[in-house]
Amino acid sequence: MIKLVDICRTYHLKNQDVKALDGISLEIPDGSLTAITGHSGCGKTTLLNIIAGYDRPDSGLYLYDGRLVNDYDERQMTDFYRHEVSMIFQEFHLLPYLNVYENIRLPLHYQKRRMNNKEIDAVLGQVGLRGYGRFCPHQLSGGQKQRAALARTLVGEVRVVLADEPTGALDRENAYNIVKLLKGMKEYGMTVVLVTHDEDIAMMADRIITLENGHVVS
Ligand SMILES: Nc1ncnc2c1ncn2[C@@H]1O[C@H](COP(=O)(O)OP(=O)(O)O)[C@@H](O)[C@H]1O
Ligand SMILES: [Mg+2]
Questions:
Q1: What CA–CA distance (Å, rounded) separates 8 from 143?
Q2: 3-class SS of residue 10
Q3: Which of 111, 191, 108 is nearest to 151 (CA)?
Q4: What separation in Å is there between the alpha carbon of 142 and the centre of ligand 2?
Q5: Whose C-alpha lies nearest to ligand 1, atom 5?
Q6: CA-CA distance, 22 to 193, in Å (whole number)?
Q7: Which side of the chain, N or C, has fewer Cβ within a 10 Å radius?
Q8: Is there an atom of ligand 1 within 6 Å of 36 CB?
Q9: What CATH code would you report for 30-44+74-216?
Q10: Strand order across the beta sheet in which 2-12 lies
Q11: Rounded to two decimals, what is the model's pTM?
Q12: Is-contact 200 171, C-beta < 8 A?
């Protein structure tokens, strides 16, 4: 379980300080699909970056399965990235010169695991991309790239998946499909945190956390 206690994060700009997170306390239970929602600039991405371990809070506690992530050293952080928490980026971060098979194999390399094309085909089937293994990212539509990124996350077998506005660039139908896929990740025992400013999308989650000016308001 993820537990945040009174997390603060301030960006120091030349002429002013921006309090992006101003005392965030929340819990994210294992196996849940949680939506984090709120207007642009309320701190959603900052919060996700802290949960991902890419950024550290100025103050407050980040507990992961009861262990204090604030105190993790570099080795513990590396383990955390490889096995525990994975971010799906809005821009997908597929490598343009690798085909879908090769992109999907990337996280396996760091985990010293192997999968052949046939095994990856099974995962591609789950995300509706059967037959696309040899395609390169530029040959895929936005929705297909998103699904390839999801497939890569699935084979990574991490426990927590974070998605920052994953439906932002998609039409309604593809957006709903992505959320359905994220919901499906629960079947694999994954915990999913989805950031969205779209209320209809948020309604598909098990729980909704709403932010306003760096505070949790509901
Ligand atoms: N790297 C940064 N440097 C300075 N200010 C930032 C940075 N990232 C975000 N901010 C500011 O922090 C606040 C929260 O930003 P963000 O977490 O990106 O919000 P959201 O994702 O909800 O749109 C905003 O006021 C934003 O301008
Ligand atoms: Mg954002």
A1: 35
A2: strand
A3: 108
A4: 19
A5: 11
A6: 20
A7: C
A8: no
A9: 3.40.50.300
A10: 17-28, 2-12, 59-64, 67-68
A11: 0.89
A12: no
